[in-house]
Model the fold of this input.
Amino acid sequence: MAVHHALAADLLLINGRVLTMDAHDSVAQAVAVRDGKIVAVGTNAEVEALAGASTQVIDLDGRTAMPGLTDCHVHLASDSSRSVESVECRDLYDPSIDSVEALVTRMGQWAASTPPGQWIVARGSPLADFRLHERRLPTRAELDSATPRNPAISRSGLTSSSPTLLHCASVALPMIPRARRAALWSRTR
Done:
């Protein structure tokens, strides 16, 4: 008997080793997915009963499938804990950050709603200096123009010349120990 098209799965994974991650660590043979949600787990026969005319069927050929999230290296936990307190300036996450101007504009927008003297921390992308239109990171003067009342720092990640490159607005310099200040100053001119 054919399944009604409204109840048919969009995707079937069959002939696999499906780790259910349930309380009993059950292992099934197949899984059915409809509208991005798992709707059935069981034997091939049980799950194939949910196939419709347009259901995609993938034969796992004994391979393992399991529910989960693919984290290819996004630092999800640490990023989520900082999302409220820092400006998102990573071009890898926001394609509108494609130039120094866009990055500085974003920091200026954040500064407009930040009390004077409070730090503005921007998260930058690794190697952004190679991807931004200008092929460089913002200078101290550019940060000063965007954040004139606030100390600002843009952690830009790995670059060709430094494991971690920090750009710091002039208002922040008195807050940084003198030895560190010289190193930062030379890198942000």
Observations:
- The first helix runs from residue 44 to 48.
- The two ends are 74 Å apart (CA to CA).
- Residues 158-167 have pLDDT under 50 and may be disordered.
